[in-house]
Write a structure and sequence with these properties.
single chain, 344 residues, mainly beta, Immunoglobulin-like, 3 domains, 6-stranded mixed beta sheet, 2 helices
């Protein structure tokens, strides 16, 4: 019959086991020196000692920055002096690591959006197109600066020359945006180097909300309006075709295309350009040359483009197509023509 082990005997046994393990397993010193943050101002002395009595003796003790040997025994001169520094003390076979942070102002930001069109281009403004009813996330980040800069969002009322604080920090989320709701959002990014002075820079993001052009063709034959998908006409009629677009934003280009071949178009400057590479007969080419064009004055938005055709020949024309393009897409409408049952 076994005698139960007394509590005293059990304690001695456990203690002996611990001593045996301690003798077999070396004590790890790697956790004795944890990385700590040290903050400096530009121009401040780098006063962290490395080596015995803080003195570097040849190569026996030295600093390494981001894994590369560094002669860091002078002042912090610029923001790029920040990084991970390791003191290697060769004689004592020890080392310790510090994370050097350098206080400095924000100098630049990056933001969502693209480079704006030439007529709206600015070094401190981006542009962003959002389709009607769409969602978007606007972001704005400092590319530098310590302490970490904060980001605040405003909406700018340009006519009143003032900004309204949206009370939003970080990213700005837009959901189900309404048609024709163009806005100029401004992110202001800054940080405090001390309690009395804050550095701050800003970036504007112009948001354009719209839809692709909705094209409408209206036709007048000898002065009377005709609205039909397939238009029956007679030879030698004078016909006027008007392509109108009321969608926001206005088209950047409107094109009239005859038989999917001959092209007449106007660009955003309202300059009329004609592609005369018509593949039909010389008679038809001459007939098409009789087209008279009309568009708004250059001081107005490009909302329409008209062509008037005197003495149209049905041997030359089977269809007309109007195509309008803006930053949100392309819209088109086709007017088919057929020869009517006409009497001379």
């Amino acid at each position: 019959m076994r005698t139960p082990m007394s509590w005293w005997t059990r304690a001695l046994f456990l203690w002996g086991s611990v001593l045996a393990l301690y003798c077999l397993v070396p004590v790890c010193k790697c956790l004795q020196n944890e990385t700590r943050n040290v903050t400096f101002d530009i121009g401040q002395e780098f006063n962290i000692k490395c080596g015995e009595n803080g003195m570097t003796k040849g190569k026996s003790s030295f600093w390494m920055k981001d894994g590369v040997e560094s002669n860091k025994n002078s002042k912090i001169s610029r923001a790029s002096d920040a990084g991970i520094y390791t003191c290697v003390d060769v004689p004592n076979k020890t080392s310790f690591t510090i994370n050097v942070l350098v206080r400095h102002e924000v100098s630049a930001v990056s933001a969502s959006g693209e480079i704006c069109p030439l007529d709206e281009r600015s070094p401190d403004t981006k542009c962003l197109n959002i389709h009607e009813g769409g969602d978007a996330t606007l972001w704005c980040n400092a590319t530098d600066g310590y302490p970490k800069p904060d980001v605040k969002w405003f909406i700018r009322l340009e006519e009143e020359d003032r900004d309204i604080d949206l009370g939003i920090e970080g990213a700005l989320f837009i959901r189900n945006i309404s048609y024709h709701c163009d806005s100029l959002f401004v992110c202001k990014v800054g940080n405090y180097l001390n309690r009395n002075r804050k550095s701050q820079i800003e970036m504007g993001i112009k948001v354009f909300v719209g839809r692709k052009p909705n094209v409408i063709i209206t036709t007048r034959i000898d002065g009377k309006q005709k609205d039909q998908n397939v238009l029956s006409i007679c030879e030698n009629y004078e016909i006027s075709f008007n392509c109108s677009v009321n969608t926001h934003p206005p088209p950047e280009e409107i094109r009239w295309i005859v038989n999917k071949d001959h092209v007449i178009f106007w660009n955003a400057t309202h300059s009329r350009i004609e592609n005369s590479s018509f593949s039909g007969s010389p008679f038809c080419a001459s007939n098409i040359d009789n087209i008279i064009t009309e568009a708004p004055a250059k001081t107005e938005a490009l909302r329409y483009a008209s062509i008037t055709w005197g003495f149209i020949s049905m041997d030359c024309v089977k269809s007309l197509e109007c195509e309008a393009t803006n930053r949100f897409g392309r819209g088109r409408k086709t007017q088919k023509l057929t020869k009517g049952n006409c009497t001379s």
